[in-house]
Amino acid sequence: MPSYIVVGGQWGDEGKGSIIAYLTLKDKPDMIARGGVGTNAGHSVFINGKKYAVRQLPTGFMQTKARLLVGAGVLVDPDVFFHELEHLKDFNVAGRVGIDYRCAIVEEKHKKFDRSNGHLHKEIGTTGSGCGPANADRVMRKAKLARDVKELEPYLTDVAAEVNDAIDEGKLVLVEGTQGFGLSLYYGTYPYVTSKDITASAIASDVGIGPTRVDDVIVVFKSFPTRVGAGPFPTEMSQGEAEKLGVVEYGTVTGRRRRVGWFDFEFARYSARINGATMLALTMLDKYDREAFGVTEYDRLPEKAKGFVEEIEERVGVPVGLIKTGPELEHIIDRRENI
User: Fold this and answer.
1) Which of 85, 168, 195, 214 is found 20 to 30 A from 111 (Cα to Cα)?
2) What's the alpha-carbon Rg for the chain, to the nearest Å?
């Protein structure tokens, strides 16, 4: 597969980071490009028991031979960018990363407005990272671009040209999405959504590739979906129920406790269709069935866990190719060769 896209199928926080990290180390893509909104989405990865959280750079940073790119559709906060270069210096990120010169910049004024605006911060429940106001300025054609920031000059490139050249050369390109389908500006629970579309089609556009250049779309679902901030959540359970199940999580960016719900099969089917999923990835199966923790072979899964996977495949209509059974990178079942 010369190119594939990984996106979230629910409300964000599906565990895309862990799936991307696995694919990065297993498949060894030559290039990893990030689409999506910007620094309002955080991805967490556990490597040898240590947690790494990124908001700006591609989650596949641990593949030290891959070129890392931030597509033109992504907002860039220079402060966050340079912080992550330092945070990930052990992986030689600074020598491998490229930012599209057309990326719009998140400025301090955007962050201040995001945090002080009652509608955005209190009613919608935004992260306060300034992404919505920055995208508004971009739409109004008055946003500052990466090419206007002197400090970013050493890292600027034409991401679309690089990605398309790589595909032409038969190299493997992994494209990362952010947030989740339910937060799409177009298809999500408006107005409780993010500031742009984040379906697979939009993520492809963010990095500059057309739909015919994408070979696979992997949509990630979590066994118990979660949501941060306000907005409809039809299958939401009480905090007490979530605690009994051992599902207590906090947002990577905001630190707010995540709302937890039961798996919504109808929503998952709709999400898979709009994203054009060719394969599903399921995370936190061990939360659904604790006996599944750490299992790495499908045939060794307990019947309860198998039944859940099979029900998802039947009702969503797309095969489940990757299954996470724990937080570490090795806690995964890879069924891609069998589907």
Assistant:
1) 85
2) 19
Rounded to whole angstroms, how far apart are CA atoms 59 and 57?
6
Q: What is the pTM of this model?
A: 0.94
Residue 282: CATH number of its domain:
3.40.440.10
Concatenate the DSSP letters of all residues of 257-287 into one string: BPEEB---HHHHHHHHHHHT-SEEEEE-HHH
Of 13, 197, 206, 289, catalytic: 13
**CA atoms within 13 A of residue 312's CA, in its CB half-sphere:** 30
CA distance 212 to 233: 34
Query: Does 121 participate in catalysis according to the annotation?
Result: no
Alpha-carbon span 90 to 108, nearest angstrom? 29
- Quote the percentage of the chain above a pLDDT of 90: 80
Buried b (16+ CB within 10 A) or exposed e, 309-320: beebeeebebbb
DSSP state of 177: -
Has 83 been annotated as catalytic?
Answer: no
Mean pLDDT of 122-149: 89
Q: What is the pLDDT of residues 205-240, one digit of tens each?
A: 999 999 999 999 999 999 999 998 789 999 999 999
Catalytic residue among 30, 43, 121, 289: 43
Angle at the Cα of 97 from the Cα atoms of 145 and 2, rounded to 5 degrees: 105
HSE, CB side, 13 Å, CA atoms: give it for residue 294: 1
Domain tally, the chain: 1
